[in-house]
Amino acid sequence: MTRADGPVTPPVVLTVAGSDSGGGAGIQADLKTIEACGGFGTSAITSVTAQNTTGVQGQHLLPIAEIEAQIEAVIEDFDVAAVKTGMLATSEVIELVADHAAVLPNLVVDPVMVAASGDRLLAAEAEDAYESLIAEATVVTPNADEAAVLTGRDVDDPAAAEQAGRDLVEMGADSALVKGGHVPGDTVVDTLVTEDEVTTFRHDRIDTEATHGSGCTLSSAIATQLAHGDDLSAAVGSGIDLLASAVRYNVDVGEGPGAVHHLVRTRDDAARHPTSEAVERVVSALVDADVSALVPERGMTVAGTTPYAETPDAVAAVEGRITRTMDGVRPNRGVRFGASTTVARALLAAREHDPSLRFAIDCRLTDAVEDALASLGGAIASYDPEERPDGASADAIAWGTGRAVETSDGTPAAVIGREGVGVGGRVTLLAADADDLVSRVETVHEAVKDGA
Question: What is the rounded radius of gyration, in angstroms, for the C-alpha atoms of the chain?
Answer without folding.
Answer: 26
